[in-house]
Amino acid sequence: MSIAYLDPGNIESDLQSGAKAGFKLLWVLLGATIIGLLLQRLAARLGVVTGMHLAEVCNRQYRTVPRIILWLMVELAIIGSDMQEVIGCAIAFSLLSSGRIPLWGGVLITIIDTFFFLFLDKYGLRKLEAFFGLLITIMAITFGYEYVRVSPDQGELLKGMFVPYCEGCGPAQLTQAVGIIGAVIMPHNIYLHSALVKSREVDRSNKKDVKEANKYFFIEASMALFVSFLINVFVVAVFAEAFYGQTNEEVVKKCVFSSVLLLSVLQGVVLGCFFGPAALYIWAVGILAAGQSSTMTGTYSGQFVMEGFLNLRWSRFARVLLTRSLAITPTLLVAIFQDIQHLTGMNDFLNVLQSMQLPFALIPILTFTSLPSLMDEFANGLVYKIGGGVVVLLVCAINMYFVVVYVAALQSVWLYVLAAFLSIAYLTFVGYLVGNISPSRGAAQDLDDK
């Protein structure tokens, strides 16, 4: 679960946030992480109390057509996340090889990690978790080194983290704020966490044991997200201190005069120009660890989602082969025919796409954990219901605002019509999820059947 908050999409969002807005959006990162923690708590509670993960509950509660649409939306989020992992690994391989490995070569190399993790998975979940822990440690050390090396202004950092403001922010900074939310609160991670808790043995007939399991899962999630939050703050702070307020021309000029390879500028990672080549390669190692470790996040969540929604039990090999192929194909085409700037733009778009998919995870988890027939005494209270509803409305409002901004900038009549149609369909489906659970397939009966 912690890995999903540290994938290349998060890292890219962090560095863009620091470079474009300085420390001003750290409060957005903090708020998104806290909301993410509360949602992970609900996901874990659903799995512990019912013995089913979120996709399985959706299969039992929604009718066929909306269930398939919901599955497709979650799959889209998973593929988008997988593309970000591919992009991050490709950039890291290119940096570590000083450009000898082209971007398209790095994309192809990421196919190998698929087989590596499938091999590692055979040795059990605990060994896989231990390896993930090693990669998180590598990220903490590498990005922590960058943080210490740059020495950002601690006063400005704390102000940006705890004072909700964004003085002088324009559309670029607002778009970046949405990207942070989409990068941090990832839809498929909610589905994933509700299934991962089933790997622990819990006596669900004993309410005391269930309550204790919920408590310790929350403590575990809090620790995991605290570590991931610190690493994300390291990245934002480094780029805020180094690059905020500088133009591209100023950065390029400094890199040229510093006799450091211009390659780092072309790839959008110019730490080496400012703080020496070691910073560049240490950064690349951290990005590679992020990309490699997050590979199995999409694999596991895709496996659970497909099994839950469709009752299809593919092998992990077939599942990874499908999603990785769908992710690599468009990324490879961009890497071959375009440049790093287009890959970065694609990553920004994917973060906003994750934000668009959020209601398709938020609404089901809030709905089902609020049902007394399903959760018994562990159902959500009034505070969670009201707070969850506000978050869903806020996310939908932000998404619609940026659809309007994006379409208005392109000034195309056909795009206006298409955007209007898709927006109506999007909001209609969100409204359906909010208020329509199949009455013929009650939660209590589902538990009896199970």
TrEMBL record:
Keyword Phosphoprotein found: no
Any GO CC annotation of this UniProt entry: plasma membrane
Transmembrane segments: 25-44, 69-95, 101-119, 131-148, 177-196, 217-240, 260-290, 321-338, 358-375, 382-407, 413-434
Domain of life, source organism: Eukaryota
One Pfam family linked to the record: Nramp
Family recorded in the similarity comment: Belongs to the NRAMP family.
Classification via HAMAP family: NRAMP
Name this polypeptide is given: Natural resistance-associated macrophage protein 2-like
Organism: Sparus aurata
